Please model this.
Amino acid sequence: MITWLVLLFSGLTLRAECLLVVDPGHGGRDLGTSTLQIREKDLALSYAKRFLEIWKRLSSKEVRLTRHEDRFISPEKRRELIANFGCQNVISLHFNGSVIRSRWGTEIYFGKETPSEWKERLEEWDYLNILAQFKQHKYHQESARWAMKLQRQLAQVFPERPIRLGRLPLTILQQSQMRGLVIEIGYLSNEQDRLKVLDPQFRDLFLETLAHNIVAQSGKDLPRK
Ligand SMILES: [Zn+2]
Model:
């Protein structure tokens, strides 16, 4: 769920030994969304672990997970973990829920600055922060390009499936010095979509497409500070 995500990933620094960190959303007492005993936190973890298996067949580049088991990680701790991993890219995996039961499909989010932040900083003449925002803008742009490419690739593999892009002032991505996407893979609140995301065939095809997308862009280094 997006509401939960607005706390993560701020204050990250880039130490790019590792290519990607995969963050299975929620965990422990934080269940995420749930429908009919199917809990977002469990599904996100199973997708993340499966991604790692698929990844290892494709590439020797390092991918790390923020959690390997069902445990609660506070947003602050999660942010710290990701920062300490020092990867170039981060993907946070989630599933959605909505009171509008007909809503289904995949959503890919990338961050943007909030205009109020700019305004505050300009008013304070806070040059260092303004500079940091400029750098961050670059990462948001990179993330946007990444999101669009992934959208195209997923749309080819799943031509019937809505693949929406969203640009939100996610705090999780706001101060990060890395490319970052939040992927809401499907809607647990929609019966067909729920069955779809529980289907191992869909899961593997989705994760293979994601893995190939990351392999294809893994040669491209981020602009350094
Ligand atoms: Zn979530």
User: Anything to note?
Assistant: Residues 132 and 175 are 8 Å apart (CA to CA).
